[in-house]
């Protein structure tokens, strides 16, 4: 019964005759074999390495608009969600959704090529992603920002991050001057932003001319049950939404790279908490040309405690589903013979 519920057809259309072979996955070293790295490129440019454009089509269901935040997408709800999750985050959540191999693969497009680069890690949480950044950039040049003091307390305990600047802040209203950083990195944060376009606009603003943003986040499921829990829990954007947000903010050379746990064997129908790495270059100094209205959420406004409690409990219940999915996928990987789709 469980297998019947969790098995769904992945609907991915590729152009130029590329077929997914049951995987539809990019750049992952599965069981020692390297797949063709197909960059999802927003522009018409084709690189010398024959990178091809793929066009994802999630026609099973439209994702809920970003203007309708899910149960744990509001900042206050996310704050309390991580108040408890921070206790087990590195030991329970990361092993199922955000491994060291995935982190290094996702950060590769960020081009962290100079140890003197100024890097901001927005939504840095416990510092797991920052540990990958400081492999390439001196810790003194890295700032970790998060709204959760409980998550940041975990980051402060990590020895390689002791020289990083660690501050509380809002991804949609960054406390950095315009044209400040060489690289903007954000991993596992956009899903909690009530207004993702505003957060990406802020990424553009704080970068220097020629700076690069690297945003790592979830992808929307195609299987009906996973779609239901995704829509209840938090923001799971479609791949084309990421690209649109980057382009509207003013970024050029926008590209999307697919990532995922190796034991998923490229399966994406259930969505992924960490499913893609999106990058874009800032072509001009100054603020983003995009003009936006007031914020979607005012964190200073009082909330109804009963409404908050009910939303929070329902959101936690939905989150439980996505804790169980990687366990299910890992069991299938152990049972189904290698080389066969799962």
From TrEMBL:
Q: Which Gene3D superfamilies match?
A: Vaccinia Virus protein VP39
Q: Where are the transmembrane segments?
A: 308-331
Region: SAM motif II, residue numbers:
164-177
For this UniProt record, the keywords arranged alphabetically read as follows: Membrane, Methyltransferase, S-adenosyl-L-methionine, Transferase, Transmembrane, Transmembrane helix
Q: Which GO terms describe its biological process?
A: methylation
- Asked if the Swiss-Prot or TrEMBL record annotates the protein with the keyword Cell division, the reply is no
Task: Name the InterPro entries for this protein.
Answer: Methyltransf_11, MPBQ/MSBQ_MT, SAM-dependent_MTases_sf, SAM_MPBQ_MSBQ_MT
What one GO molecular function would you report for this record?
2-methyl-6-phytyl-1,4-benzoquinone methyltransferase activity
Query: Domain MPBQ/MBSQ family SAM-binding methyltransferase profile, which positions?
Result: 70-279
The region called SAM motif III is annotated at: 205-218
Asked if the record carries the keyword GTP-binding, the reply is no
Ranges for the region named SAM motif I are 119-128
Q: Which Pfam families match?
A: Methyltransf_11
The family this protein is said to belong to: Belongs to the class I-like SAM-binding methyltransferase superfamily. MPBQ/MBSQ MT family.
According to UniProt, the name of this protein is: PREDICTED: 2-methyl-6-phytyl-1
């Amino acid at each position: 019964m469980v297998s019947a519920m969790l098995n769904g057809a992945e609907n991915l259309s590729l152009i130029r005759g590329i077929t997914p072979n049951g995987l539809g996955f990019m750049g992952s070293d599965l069981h020692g074999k390297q797949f063709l790295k197909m960059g999802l490129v927003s522009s018409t440019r084709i690189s010398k390495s024959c990178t091809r454009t793929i066009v994802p089509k999630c026609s099973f269901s439209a994702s809920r608009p970003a203007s309708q935040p899910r149960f744990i997408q509001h900042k206050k709800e996310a704050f309390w969600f991580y108040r408890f999750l921070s206790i087990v985050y590195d030991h329970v959540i990361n092993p199922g959704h955000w491994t060291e191999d995935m982190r290094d693969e996702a950060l590769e497009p960020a081009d962290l090529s100079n140890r003197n680069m100024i890097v901001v890690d927005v939504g840095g949480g416990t510092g797991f992603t920052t540990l990958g950044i400081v492999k390439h950039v001196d810790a003194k040049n890295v700032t970790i920002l998060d709204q959760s003091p409980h998550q940041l307390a975990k980051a402060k305990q990590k020895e390689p991050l002791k020289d990083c600047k660690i501050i509380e802040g809002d991804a949609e209203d960054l406390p950095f001057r315009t044209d400040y950083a060489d690289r903007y990195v954000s991993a596992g944060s956009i899903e909690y932003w009530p207004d993702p376009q505003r957060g990406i606009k802020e990424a553009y603003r704080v970068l220097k001319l020629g700076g690069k943003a690297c945003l790592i986040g979830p992808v929307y499921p195609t299987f009906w049950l996973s779609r239901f829990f995704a829509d209840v829990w938090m923001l799971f954007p479609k791949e084309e939404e990421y690209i649109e947000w980057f382009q509207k903010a003013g970024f050029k050379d926008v590209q999307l790279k697919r990532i995922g746990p190796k034991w998923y064997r490229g399966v994406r129908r259930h969505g992924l908490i960490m499913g893609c790495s999106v990058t874009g270059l800032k072509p001009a100094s100054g603020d983003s040309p995009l003009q936006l209205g007031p914020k979607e959420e005012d964190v200073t406004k009082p909330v109804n405690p009963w409404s908050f409690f009910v939303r929070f409990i329902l959101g936690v219940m939905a989150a439980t589903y996505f804790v169980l999915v990687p366990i299910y996928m890992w069991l299938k990987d152990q049972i189904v013979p290698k080389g066969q789709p799962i």
